[in-house]
Specification:
By secondary structure, this protein is of the alpha+beta class. The protein is built from five helices and ten strands. The strands form three sheets. It has a four-stranded antiparallel β-sheet with strand order 2-1-3-8. A four-stranded antiparallel β-sheet has the order 5-6-4-7. It has a two-stranded antiparallel ribbon with strand order 9-10. The radius of gyration is 17 Å and the shape is globular.
Length: 198
């Protein structure tokens, strides 16, 4: 496995990500654990929020929308259990960032002084377009906004998670460490593990 980890490290080197160790078959991060050692021990690995140097989008549309075909042709894209992860270079233009930030805050229940009405109005057509191309909510923008604990991240290849992870309830409530999947369509179903691939 050490040689495989070396190859993965070489593949990811051009991005110059900040990495996090992630629990095996899960999306839960391990503070204080070396990400490469975690990967060697069959754990997962993620790119952490890096102040907008990179934005990783979750696109949940299996069929590539025509508007995204030129992006896919020129951008690092990897397969995920739902569809695709798209790695973009930051930063995001200020007017787009402020609109998406206003939308994100309203999704979390914040209003009044924290949300500018003009930013929120500007966000509406942006969000409508993003939904049409499979980018469905503010959590699809990994690396755009820091989370409250500073741990915003996106899993990278070859991380493995269940196909049903997050489909019924919160991602953190998935039974990754048990044999049965509590997010599967049928009760008492087994997990369907899927590795992210380039």
């Amino acid at each position: 496995m050490r040689s495989e980890v070396s190859q993965i490290r070489r593949n990811l080197a051009p991005f110059d990500f900040q990495y996090l160790a992630i629990e095996p078959h899960s999306k839960t991060f391990y503070p204080g654990v070396d990400p490469w050692e975690c990967l060697r021990l069959d754990g997962n690995i993620a790119a952490e929020y890096d102040g907008h140097r990179h934005i990783i989008l979750d696109d949940d549309a299996r069929e590539i929308p025509p508007i995204l075909k030129p992006v896919f042709a020129q951008t690092a894209v990897f397969n995920t259990p739902k569809a695709y992860g798209i790695i973009l270079k930051g930063p995001v233009p200020r007017e787009i960032y402020s609109a998406l930030r206003a939308f994100s805050l309203t999704q979390k229940g914040f209003m009044s002084r924290q949300v500018n009405d003009e930013d929120l109005e500007r966000a509406i057509p942006i969000i409508q377009l993003l939904k049409k191309i499979g980018i469905k909510d503010d959590t699809a923008f990994h690396g755009l906004f820091p989370s409250a604990d500073g741990r915003t991240y996106a899993l990278l290849p070859p991380s493995t998670t269940c196909k049903y992870h997050g489909r019924k309830g919160r991602v953190r409530n998935h039974s990754s460490q048990l044999p049965t999947c509590n997010h599967a369509p049928k009760k008492n179903s087994q997990h369907e593990w899927v590795a992210r691939t380039w």
